[in-house]
Amino acid sequence: MTRKNENGVPTPGPDKAAADLKALRVQIDKLDLQILEFLNKRAAIAGRIGKVKADQGGEVFSAGREEEVLNNVLSANKGPLGEVSIRAVFRELISGSRALQKVQKVAFLGPEYSYSHLAALERFGEAVSFLRTGTIGAVFEEVGRRHADYGVVPLENSTDGRITDTLDMFIRMPQIKICSEIRLRVHHHLLANCEQTEIRRVYSKAQALSQCRNWLSKNLPHASLHEVSSTADAARLVQSEPHVAAVASRQAAVRYGIRTLYQNIEDSPFNETRFAVIGPSDSMKTGTDKTAMMFQVSHTPGALADVLSVFKGNKINLTWIESFPYREAKGEYVFFVDFEGHREDLKVRKALTALEEICDSVSVLGSFPIAHPSDE
Predict the structure, then answer these.
(1) Which one, 43, 185, 246, 370, has the greatest CB density within 10 A?
(2) 287 and 161 part of one domain
(3) How remote is the C-alpha of 346 from its chain's centroid?
(4) Can you give the pTM of this predicted structure?
């Protein structure tokens, strides 16, 4: 007897469905073996490229080339897999291929599953050797001493603005260059192993508490807020103390086995942190680049306006500007700017030459591909 659904359409019986399922799985198994074959062929070619670069003294990590690879596959992708999935697959493929040439050492502000760690994973994948540090300054020092090939440091947040320690270290170590940027959409979650009504203390990094201040005051008015060195440290405290909660990432919840009481508690839905990848040199020109620099001007009327007129005159679009106190001289400031274009572009070279004539000091921190935001 033929089975029919409520609309009278014949449906396959259990034996036919099982046979169809088996046939589809056979197709999957064959495709998996083909994918594996092509992955290893690609990795072998990447290894040959690595030898050529090594002979020429080139760097293993090339942010510009990796962005080009990702853009090629994403523009050709017709689904059904979405961009997030394609990025994740190729990120690890590139990471593994890079490791065949050399296992890169990447320093970050720890501990594991802090947002800096998540940003480092987003950029470099799993096939690297991560070096956890206790401070942003230590990340710079590890790179400066060549104990690490690269470092990942937070640069600015859309809610709280600049990261003071990072800008201070660029002033102290201007030889360190930015070779890539990472834009991470940051989602904060309330983690706890007790009920909301039982929470007496909330732990997190200062910036995370600040980015959730309205939600916390509305939903946990009787809980006290306590700053710790990182969101991951906050999650660890939930394991050891009663009646506490942490504001941290979903990865930290999974890592430490903590319940997520509420998701996405950040006050702004556009909360984003921008990270800089720092190293001994910047990135090659890709055509969609950004340049970072810092400069000082004389403490006279119109000095900053003269600098800005150079960018306007050369039709260069500024994407970020910050004034930062210069600690070596009272009342003096260092200005940090990002602008569209690569330092090798003709109009950028002209602008830099003009700036060197009117500024007390100019230091290019690096040119690198413009990044697009990704979710943590």
Answers:
(1) 246
(2) yes
(3) 29
(4) 0.85
Compute the CA torsion angle 188, 194, 197, 203 (nearest 10 deg). -40
**Whether 359 and 280 share a structural domain:** yes
Q: How many domains does the chain have?
A: 3
Answer for the pair 183, 376: CB distance below 8 angstroms, yes or no. no
Q: Note whether 195 and 254 are same-domain residues.
A: yes
35 in any annotated domain: yes
Collect contacts of 90-94 with beta carbons under 8 A, ≥24 apart. Answer: 91/122, 91/125, 92/125, 92/126, 92/127, 93/39, 93/42, 93/43, 94/66, 94/69, 94/125
Q: Which domain holds residue 76?
A: 20-101
Give the residue from 246, 268, 290 where a domain finishes: 268
Could you tell me if 78 and 121 lie in one domain? no
Tens place of pLDDT for every residue, the chain, 376 residues?
Answer: 556 666 666 666 677 888 889 999 999 999 999 999 999 999 999 888 888 888 887 788 888 888 889 889 999 999 899 988 999 999 999 999 999 888 999 999 988 888 899 999 999 999 999 999 999 999 999 999 999 999 999 999 887 788 999 999 999 999 999 999 999 988 999 999 999 999 999 999 988 999 999 999 999 999 999 999 889 899 999 988 999 999 999 999 998 999 999 999 999 888 899 999 999 999 989 899 999 999 999 888 899 999 999 999 999 999 999 998 877 766 688 999 999 999 999 999 999 999 999 999 999 999 999 998 887 6
Same domain, 291 and 170: yes
